[in-house]
Write a structure and sequence with these properties.
146 residues, 17% strand, four-stranded parallel sheet, 4 strands, alpha/beta
Amino acid sequence: MSDTTTPPQHAPGIAGDVEVISFGYLHGPAPQADLTFDVRRYLSDPAAVRDTGLLDCDGRDDDVRRVVLDTWGAPETIDLALGFVLAFPHGHRCVIAFGCAGGRHRSVALAEVAAADLRTMEFNVTVRHLHVHLPRVIGDESTGCA
């Protein structure tokens, strides 16, 4: 979980394969997934506040992850994703995706946190960031990573 509580436990031997994907809707359609979160409308974009020093960073940076997780609704989104994976049928590969506008900040941060939490529950997790390497969507002067 994204807070300090203990993650829910699964029954021994049930841990399976999970793929966690981050992407940006402005770069194309959502990837195929068993569960997709479109966070554009309910999570604030840390890159939109230009004086934070986060514009050129991405969700793999601690400062970006902290800002995203401090946003109303972010911890609950992680909890929903984890609950879905825990309820997924045994023996089937589960794919969850997080999408934001550009695929660099919110979706990447959520994917990284969800993946880390799933690993602590002994799931085999792969992470794919589809658009994190692309130029940022919001144009402004370069601010560098904090």
